[in-house]
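Hello,

Following up on my earlier ticket. Below are the two sequence lines again, exactly as submitted.
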Amino acid sequence: MKKLSLPDTLLLSIEKPERYIGNEVNAVHKDLSQIEVRFCMCFPDVYEIGMSHLGLQILYDLFNKREDTWCERVFSPWMDLDKLLREKDIPLFALESQDPVKDFDFLGITLQYEMCYTNVLQILDLSQIPLHSDERCENDPIVIGGGPAAFNPEPLHCFFDLFYIGEGEVSYGELLSVYKENRRNKGTRADFLRKAAFVPGIYVPSLYEASYNEDGTLKDFRPLYPDVPEKVRKQVVPDLSYVNYPEKPLIPFIKVTQDRAVLEVMRGCIRGCRFCQAGQVYKPKRERSLAFLKDRAEKILSSGGQDEISLSSLSTSDFSSLKELTDWLIEKYRSCFVNISLPSLRIDAFSLDLMEKVQDVKKSSLTFAPEAGSQRMRDVINKGIDREDILRGSAEAFKGGWNKVKLYFMLGLPTETDEDVLAIAELSDAVAMCYYDTVPKEKRKGIRVQVTSSASFFIPKPFTPFQWAKMDGEKEFRRKAYMLKEAFEKTLNHRSLKFQYHETELSMLEGALARGDRRQSAVIEKAYKNGSMFDAWSEHFSYENWLKAFAESGLNMDFYCLRERGKDELFPWDFIDIGVQKDYLYREWEKGLSAAVTPNCSEKCSLCGARSYGCGICNRL
Amino acid sequence: MLVRIKFSKHGLMKYIGHLDLMRYFQRTARMAGLPMAYSEGFSPHPLLSFAQPLSVGLESNGEYVDMKLKDFMSTDNIRSRLHNVQAEGMGIEAVAELPEKSKKAMASVAYASYYLQFRPGRIPDADMGAALEQFFSLENYPVEKTTKKGSREIDLRSLTRSAVLHEGSPERGSSFPVDNGAYLELCLSAESGDNVKPEFFLQNVLLLSGQGPYENLASDILVTRRELYDSDMRPLIEAGKITK
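Thanks for your patience. The regenerated structure is below:
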């Protein structure tokens, strides 16, 4: 039997022991005597969330294909085990070998959202690794962060030794070579960090310093040494059909959040929605070839035995071989009852037809994301769809037999007026009305259409045209939400409509951390030490804790959230080069303010700067 | 074709709950390329049916699942295909083809046999031998059984087929090291409604001799299910035949 880090009686006393035992089908085990680098990959949330993440599976596979490296996994222990590990002084361990994380060469932590920051500290703390990079000694693992939230790594700068900016497939090979060479040469931890700064995409926060103006804005950000690069460039896989993709995905025993095979059909997005960070940071749009995808689909399904495969990307409708791929999958797998799931489709006749084909019986609910209620507002955010598109899509869906629709909106977008807010209720009502106009009474079978509209609060993110924008305050958010709720109650079809909105407090914190700077690391540490953890789980989130932590650190959330930035303000993340240029983003910001639309990448190149990567859609033009 | 699969569940697999095990089995059957038959209707699911759920924390040498296949395949072939895709701790013990109109494993189960060991340092201060002797001298032993559906009286004596105290350690007992020189071998009713759990048996036998109740008895013992039997005390696998 494989060894276990936790005693049997302890495992049987906690919730879901399966989270902590490893041993899943396709988990990788290696002979330690043949291994030079031990890498522990961490998703700082509970197992079921972490194991649903494709990026983790990609990197796990990438590292384990190397003969000299063994990559294992660790997730945030849930509250019950967290408490026991502290009480019994058991160091956090990796799932495969069950060895303590602190014995590894690397601890890689993926940062998918700001709300996981306190869990990063939980992982370090439970692993018995010093929280601060400068307190770590030669035997501690190198702690490296990556993922979308690493595009503004500054709030976490002192907890990480390194950050990896961009797609993991590109530079990890070089980073590990530098690590091995440094060790061969008896170099120190400091030597390694210095050398790592020259690996493309690697940011070593301890080699840079920041200074601030009296008004609290960033004054200057520069390397401490003249040879350390001033800019860190995002890494991009130029051709996704010639890169590693996991063929034997890990198959968890527990039901995880996304319990299906995932086929990533492309990266990047052509759409240019002005609020969207993923749309900018994953540019350029690059597709995988049909041959590559067919090959991987076959391999994954035969080695993983899943009964569902999801075609994943930021906007799957824009994948040019979508029809061919789904037709092929249906043809090949219908007889073995493999479902095909198509998230993130734009709702039009074409995609409805596709959905009809892949899920002939289960017509659960359709999701549209108009994001804003009025056309003016949708032009401000460059959503690229109009009222007609939405109503036509709805009509098609209702004709096709769907009778549940979810609509996603944002409140608090730049330039938003009360009129724009109220338009959300009006549009939702029009969608419901469209059902009654489209489906004749005798075909409704007594069923009333169900339109669920959800509003989240707009949070400006780094590397978007809206990175200059101010957020609405909590009071304003609540005022708008209540006003909208009332408007929903007054609609003609109010009995078919449901309106819900996100928590304002969580949105404020996310807003503050998203555009945070180095000074916030003290806030995060205080919040953690006062008991904040699992902030993304509303039952564990304590806003008071965070407000206190900001106040004790002499910082103010309003400074980060409520302030519109000037054209020339230096941002904490400006040292990262994502290809897309700041002046392009500013042009987009100005265009947004005047509700001027920008064509998408397939219509016309807007010279954003991503072309410098020389790949994907940028090459076609 | 209808097949019955006998599998064992040891080591780390004992932490896998019943629902997760069902999903795991569907997955591994797909990975093994078995042509599973599916149910009709809105959400077709593979026709798999387990004899009896095993509680988390128990190991087993004899669990059963019946599976319907669309096409014929020799049982040897099925066994080796399944064997190749199992996680460590899961063993495919035997595969047999069932006659066309067989009773489901779930409906056939009448008895289950167990090994029961105490964790080191958790042996109750009790004379087990005397307690068992007293128990078997009774003709009836009515006890209250509480389930989710409420509580009712059952006759523990008539639902107990055998209970023997052995010295040493059982062959294929717990994968977790136990070294206290003695173990119980039990054969208890496993019929639905009258299912007797090993710790329930033990608690009541000890009570009979004036000992206990022991509060955390379930966590003081390590239980391995040995086999499931029909009402004629035939292991369930014997209802089918093995084909090459």
